[in-house]
Design brief:
This protein is α/β, with parallel strands linked by helices. The chain has 20 helices and 13 strands. The N and C termini lie far apart (71 Å).
C-alpha cells in the first residue's frame, strides 16, 4: 500500500511541484489543502501518513497552529517555509516537526526528508532504547557498528541509533552539541559504516582556517589566480571527492563563503579561485556548538544554508546528562593512559569515583580525558585515592567571601580553571582556546589583560 501524503500549501505552483515529485516517486498524494480548516477536513477522511505544511496559509490559522494539532494527534509532519524570524522558528520547533524544507524544492531533498521523517516517526517512542533496571550492572552491548565507542546511557544510545540509520543514506547531517561531546568521533563513525567508507574522510575546522586563505583551502585555486599562487592547489572538497567531508564549527564560516558552500550542497559543484566550476561527489557532515537559529536571526548565517544542513540534526548529549557513562569513560581513559605510561592500570577508590560522578564536567568528555591523563601521570600506587580536578584555588577562596565577584573576577577565574584543566595548553586539540570556544589570539589577549601567567599561578598552586 502506498504511503499517503497530504500537502498543505497555499501557493499553487509550489503545491503542484510537490505533487509531481511525490507522485513520480511512488507516493499517494491524498489531497492539497490551502488552509487549516481544509487540511483538518482531509485528515479526517484520508488519515495521511505524513503531512507537508507551509507556515503561512489562507484563512484563519497558520501552519504552526496546524502543527500543534498534528503533534497532539501523533501525525508526522514537515514544515515547508523558510523563515528567518527567530520567534517564528522557535514557535515552529515547539510543535516538534520532523524537519524543515526550503523553497524552491529539489526532488532529491524532498524524498530524503520524507524518508528520514517517516523513519523517525516510526521509531519515535522514547522507550525504544533503555536499560532495564534489573540489568543496570550488566554490560551494555553497543551496536556492532559503534563498538569502538564507550557508553550505555539512554541518550547516548539513542544518538547512536539515529547515527546508524542516517549513515546508510547519503544525506547531509548536522551534528549538534557542546564542545567536547564527541562530534568529530561520531562523524567518523558515520563515515566508517557508510557506502563511502573506503573513500576519503576529510576533516576541516572552519574556526581555525586563516581568513585570507579559507576560500582557497576549501575550494582550491589555479596557478597564477592570485599573488603567491605559484602552483595549482586542490581544496578540501576536491580532496574528499567520492568520500565524506566533515566541517567542524560550521557556524564560523564567513557569510560570503556560505553562498559557495550552499552551491556545493545544491548542485554538487565547486568553483576553485581562478578556475571553472567542476562537479564533485561528496557527502557533507557538519558540526557546531553554536545555536544556528540564533545566528540566522542575527543575520550571521544564511537561512537557506541552515535548512539544507538541518535535514537530519543529530544531538550529542553533554556528559552531565550521561552520568551512567562517566565511570565507564574514566576507566577507559585510565587504561589508555596507563598503557601509554607503561604503568599498571590503577583503580579508583570509592572517594575518587564519587568525585568524578559529582562533578558537572562543563568541558564534557575532553575535560574528563584531560583530567584522567593528568591523574595517571601523578599516580604512584595501584589505587587513585582522590581525583584532582583542577579548579582555581583563587576562585574557591573568592567564592567563600560574602558578596559577589565582579565580571572581571569571574572571567579570570574561569580562564584559569580551564587552563589548569588542560595543563596550561593554550592552542591545538584539547587546548584552552578550543574548550573556551574562542580564537587563540583572543585568549592570549585576555590573559595578558587579566594578568594571567602560568608561572604565577603554578607557584600559588
Amino acid at each position: 500500500m502506498k504511503t499517503k501524503i497530504l500537502i498543505v500549501e497555499d501557493q499553487f505552483i509550489e503545491a503542484k511541484s510537490l505533487n509531481v515529485i511525490l507522485t513520480n516517486a511512488g507516493y499517494f498524494v491524498c489531497g492539497i489543502a490551502r488552509s487549516v480548516t481544509a487540511a483538518l477536513s482531509i485528515i479526517e477522511k484520508e488519515n495521511p501518513d505524513l503531512i507537508l505544511v507551509d507556515i503561512f496559509l489562507q484563512g484563519e490559522g497558520t501552519g504552526i497552529d496546524l502543527g500543534k494539532i498534528l503533534n497532539e494527534k501523533n501525525i508526522a509532519f514537515v514544515y515547508l517555509s523558510a523563515n528567518s524570524n527567530r520567534q517564528i522558528l522557535e514557535a515552529a520547533k515547539s510543535t516538534k516537526p520532523y524537519g524543515f524544507m526550503v523553497k524552491p524544492f529539489r526532488a532529491k531533498d524532498v524524498l530524503i526528508m520524507l524518508d528520514v521523517a517517516l523513519y523517525l516517526h516510526k521509531n519515535r517512542q522514547p522507550e525504544k532504547i533503555k536499560v532495564p533496571p534489573s540489568e543496570k550492572s550488566a554490560p551494555v552491548v553497543l551496536p556492532p557498528e559503534f563498538s569502538q565507542l564507550v557508553g550505555k546511557s539512554r541518550k547516548f544510545l539513542e544518538a547512536l541509533e539515529q547515527a546508524k540509520m542516517v549513515a546508510h543514506k547519503d544525506t547531509s547531517v548536522l551534528i549538534l552539541g557542546e564542545s567536547g561531546t564527541g562530534k568529530e568521533l561520531i562523524a567518523h563513525s558515520i563515515h566508517s559504516i557508510s557506502a563511502r567508507r573506503h573513500k576519503p574522510f576529510v576533516v576541516v575546522n572552519c574556526g581555525t582556517l586563516p581568513a585570507n586563505l579559507i576560500e582557497s583551502d576549501l575550494f582550491g585555486h589555479e596557478k597564477g589566480s592570485f599573488t603567491g599562487a605559484t602552483t595549482k592547489r586542490e581544496g578540501k572538497f576536491e580532496l574528499a571527492d567520492e568520500g565524506t567531508i566533515f566541517l567542524d564549527e560550521i557556524g564560523e564560516l564567513p557569510l560570503e563563503l556560505q553562498v559557495k558552500f550552499l552551491r556545493v550542497l545544491q548542485e554538487r559543484e565547486i568553483e576553485p579561485i581562478g578556475g571553472k566550476p567542476r562537479k564533485i561527489n561528496v557527502r557533507v557532515l557538519a558540526a557546531t556548538n553554536k545555536d544556528l537559529e540564533e545566528e540566522v536571526a542575527a543575520g550571521r548565517f544564511r537561512i537557506d544554508l541552515y535548512y539544507r544542513l538541518n535535514v537530519f540534526p543529530l544531538l550529542m548529549p553533554p556528559l552531565r546528562e550521561r552520568k551512567e557513562d562517566i565511570l565507564l569513560l574514566a576507566n577507559y581513559f585510565l587504561k589508555k593512559y596507563s598503557d601509554e605510561e607503561a604503568k599498571k592500570t590503577p583503580v579508583f577508590s570509592t572517594e575518587a569515583a564519587n568525585i568524578l560522578m559529582q562533578y558537572d564536567w562543563p568541558g564534557n568528555i575532553r575535560e574528563l580525558e584531560n583530567t584522567i591523563q593528568r591523574n595517571v601521570v601523578l599516580a604512584n600506587s595501584d589505587m587513585i585515592e582522590s581525583v584532582e580536578i583542577p579548579v582555581s584555588k583563587r576562585a574557591a577562596a573568592t567564592s567563600n567571601k560574602i558578596g559577589f565577584k565582579t565580571m572581571i573576577e569571574n572571567e579570570r577565574d574561569h580562564i584559569i580553571a580551564v587552563l589548569e584543566s588542560c595543563n596550561w595548553k593554550i592552542s591545538g586539540k584539547g587546548g584552552a582556546a578550543e574548550i573556551l570556544d574562542i580564537n587563540v589570539n583572543t585568549l592570549n589577549s585576555r590573559m595578558k589583560k587579566l594578568g594571567i601567567q602560568k608561572e604565577s599561578y603554578a607557584k600559588k598552586g
